[in-house]
Amino acid sequence: MQRVIKRAALVIIALLVAGVLVLVGLNLWVVMATRDRIAASPLTCESREVGIVFGTSHGLVGGGSNPHYQARLDTAAQLYRLHRVSNLLLSGDNRTRYYNEPMTMWRDLRARNVPQQFMTLDYAGFSTFDTLVRAKKVFGVSEAILVTQPWHLPRALFIADAIGLDASGCPAISESQTSNIKLTLREWLARAATVGDLYLWGRTPRFLGPQERLPTPVLSPSLSVKASVEISQLDMKAPVLLAWPLQRSHDVSPTSVLLKPQPLARVPLKVVRSEEKGVLLVMKKLLPNVRQSLAILLNHEAAPMKD
User: Fold this and answer.
1) What's the mean pLDDT when you consider all of the chain?
2) Which letter does DSSP use for residue 221 in this model?
3) What's the burial of 272, exposed, middle or buried (CB within 10 Å: 0-12/13-18/19+)?
4) Residues 305, 289 contacting (CB under 8 angstroms)
5) Rounded to an integer, what distance in angstroms lies between the CA atom of residue 133 and that of residue 110?
6) Is the separation of the CB atoms in 54 and 156 below 8 Å?
7) Does the pLDDT value for residue 264 go beyond 50?
8) Distance CA 307, CA 97 (A)
9) Quick one: angle between helices 128-137 and 181-199, nearest 10?
């Protein structure tokens, strides 16, 4: 009897050791395959057309605000201010009328001065897998920045690779950086399960739905500067500025609305040349006429410009 118990104990121990080795191996695979595409901080994140913000609970079970939630929205707002993204896709859980992660994110990003035309809401992002598959198949996203915590990014990027979504990771650094054994273990198990979802049992999204179109990008593309090339000719024509129509902050539509920019008045262009360490720097400074700009925004005829 003792011999049987001893053999059973050895089998259990062997299975546990094998399970741990498999778990560690799968986690190493996920992390090593994605580590080169995770930025060190939001300031070093790449520029992409779409930024996908993963939803999470706004508050904690024991009360108080969720630091992970706040960090994701702070990072998303920072990407908008830095002109790193043209659209923010807010994806989260809205399985009941009393719990709406996308709308909560939309509301709090509006409080962070992100205009509503830069945000699209996905109400069926029930999981990381669902969010990314829907981003590609429903919203037609081909490349994106993923906004979430550093420990979550490897799994999200691994899924993006598997479904053919060109993505890079932008870390949302939470204020609370204390180690959480329960959270770490949960993420390790989730990474292992993700490998099974993708390569073993063929997981599908809980709800896919009809295709939708993201708004046309409205942010100006970043201009690359080549210091080694001297600029010999400058365009002295006055540029046409574009302004987006003012809308009430509480106007929310479940469908994408394309806005048409209105041209502002032409303004003079002042070119300033300066030399620093032998490199010619060309800086263009716009001197807008405030009166004309406000007149056009208010749909009035602009007054003549004065010299």
Assistant:
1) 77
2) P
3) exposed
4) yes
5) 26
6) yes
7) no
8) 58
9) 40
Give SS3 for 280.
Answer: strand
Of 208, 220, 216, 305, whose CA–CA distance to 265 is shortest? 305
Dist. CA 125–CA 52, nearest whole Å: 11
Residues 7-22 have pLDDT tens digits of: 888 999 999 999 999 9
Q: What is the DSSP letter of 216?
A: P
110's tokens: 């509006």
Termini Cα distance of the chain: 104
Secondary structure of 38-105 in HEC code, one letter for each residue? ECCCHHHCCCCCEEEEECCCCECCCCCECHHHHHHHHHHHHHHHCCCCCEEEEECECCECCECHHHHH
d(CA 55, CA 147): 10
* Residues 256/218, Cβ–Cβ less than 8 Å: no
Helical H runs in the chain? 2-34, 67-81, 101-111, 128-137, 153-163, 181-199, 290-297
Residue with tokens 């979430």: 148
Tokens standing for residue 252: 């929310």
pLDDT single digits (tens) 127-185: 999 999 999 999 999 999 999 999 999 999 999 999 999 999 999 998 765 568 888 99
Residue 241, Cβ neighbours under 10 Å: how many? 17
Residues in the chain: 307
User: For residues 15 and 124, what is the distance between their CA atoms, to the nearest angstrom?
Assistant: 38
